[in-house]
Amino acid sequence: MKKPKISLGKVSNFIQTNFPRRMAARCPVTGLSFAPPSSSSFRSHPEKYFLVGQPVKSTLPIASAGKATREKCNFIVSKRLSGLEEAMRIRRSRELRDSEKVKKRPPLRRGKVSGRLPVPDHILKPPYVGSNLLPELSKEHQIHDDEGIARMRAAGELAARVLEFAGTMVRPSITTNEIDKAVHNMIIDAGAYPSPLGYGGFPKSVCTSVNECMCHGIPDTRQLQDGDIINIDVTVYLNGYHGDTSKTFLCGNVNENAKRLVKVTEECLERAISVCKDGASFKKIGKRISEHAERFGFGVVERFVGHGVGTVFHSEPIVMHNRNDGPGRMVEGQTFTIEPILTLGTIECVTWDDGWTTLTADGSLAAQCEHTLLITRTGADILTKC
């Protein structure tokens, strides 16, 4: 039986006629609303926002005591999508459904993790090496003089070259352990230290996150398969400064859904960088990323954030990639990362018992890309670009 068409205009007229404004005052309704942190809360507990996403609260109407409520409100308030956004969402849903019929991707399984690779004694090591405790987020913003900027440029340039080389290794049948070994050797040969190695007990020199792995994947003996996507996250410690970058690479014949996810993630990073300059608000970054991701129906992960980087690996400011009302403005000479993670499905995650490997809760694909930026008076220099 054919369903009758109902225009939005008729629905709007019906609501205005049958539910006057005075009723809203007696029976307020709100949908799911974002609850941004207060400035004091953000400054007092920044680690909360560095490690996890921000809370979402739901508010329901409550009748006053002793008063009868004649009207009953049962509305779901949601964001209104433009015609283009809705069309993209429908198309992506159909493509996901059709691709699952053709080939169902098996869930990610862990392989065997080998021991840490050695680092020569003459290589300068970060202060956290030798301890398995996860360092606290430093409150010191990374703002540099001319010498510091020169060292940050050198660290960023090396990280970019290593990542580019690692990307050339991506092909079916290679293991992430082989990629880790090659990355480790290239960093050591350049006189630098692979920053992830020993950070909070992390056992490898690079993070390799495959398919539904959002981030922090530990290299192991699993072979890459035709159609996989893999994020390789490289950080080097050179002459006392960290350069941090990552990119998601395609392995063999990758389907169109995965290609689009990777491309849009890169575009989100580019749009976020475009708003950066001295005096700009950090919350603009999350706005730009969310706007672009939502056009294609992708989720923006809230739990993992960008951060200050320089003489320390992770410091304030915390750079959120989702819409937020966080405080803070950029300062000339400051360095930090932007590293959005987009998903085909849920933004919720689960972490393996290794304490690092974090996957999408529904097994949907995730993609990430990252750059280290230097804020200038008129914009931002990408320090990790070849």
Quick tags:
386 residues, alpha+beta, Creatine Amidinohydrolase, 2 domains, four-stranded antiparallel beta sheet, three-stranded antiparallel beta sheet, 9 helices, 17 strands, 31% helix, globular
Explain the overall architecture:
- It comes from Asparagus officinalis (Garden asparagus).
- GO terms for molecular function: initiator methionyl aminopeptidase activity; metal ion binding; metalloaminopeptidase activity.
- One of its GO terms (biological process) is proteolysis.
- A divalent metal cation 1 binds at residues 233, 244, 370.
- This protein has helices spanning 8-18, 21-26, 39-44, 46-51, 83-102, 146-168, 176-189, 256-274, 283-295, and strands spanning 32-34, 56-58, 193-194, 207-210, 213-215, 229-238, 241-250, 299-300, 306-308, 315-319, 335-338, 341-343, 349-351, 358-360, 366-368, 371-375, 380-382.
- The chain is α+β, with helices and mostly antiparallel strands and 386 residues long.
- It folds into two domains: 1-39 and 56-78, no CATH class; 102-382, Alpha-Beta Complex (Creatine Amidinohydrolase), CATH 3.90.230.
- Strand 6 (229-238) and strand 7 form a beta hairpin.
- Helix 6 packs antiparallel against helix 7 (176-189) and helix 8 runs antiparallel to helix 9 (283-295).
- The longest helix is centred in the middle third of the chain and has 23 residues, at 146-168.
- It is globular.
